[in-house]
Design brief:
flat; 0% strand; mainly alpha; 6 helices; 130 residues
């Protein structure tokens, strides 16, 4: 079972997978990167807890549930504002709503449409008289 050609193919495939995922396969490096990401998330959550009131935090969490990309963008924007010292106190819910409205005006409008194809959807069981 010690086929040298099979072992060579396995090594090539392993190198190919590692190149695709951008890593050397070092578990310590992956663990360090994961720990760094966790620390950044903790720092972001602590900043948000300091600068947002409870109502504003609840509204932001609701937004993150419905539109995760917009919620993450607003979170990052609030964190940057806090780090640059642009915030004087805690952001209330009404101030967060104003901030969201300004973000909505800056973002391009995307309209989604729903089209019904009634010919395919019109399967009527009344015609099935056997």
């Amino acid at each position: 079972m010690d086929d040298p050609e099979l072992e060579r193919i396995r090594q090539q495939r392993l190198a190919q997978l590692q190149a695709q995922h951008g890593g050397t396969g070092d578990p310590n490096q992956a663990k360090a990167q994961e720990e760094k990401m966790r620390a950044m998330e903790d720092a972001k959550h602590s900043i948000l807890a300091q600068v947002l009131s409870q109502d504003a935090r609840a509204r932001l969490n609701t937004i993150k549930l419905s539109k995760p990309e917009k919620g993450a963008m607003v979170e990052n924007m609030i964190c940057r504002m806090a780090q640059m010292g642009q915030l004087s106190g805690k952001i209330s819910e009404s101030e967060l709503i104003e901030l969201l409205q300004s973000v909505n005006q800056q973002m391009p409008k995307t309209t989604s449409t729903v089209k019904f194809d009634r010919r395919r959807a019109a399967l009527d069981s009344d015609d099935d008289d056997f």
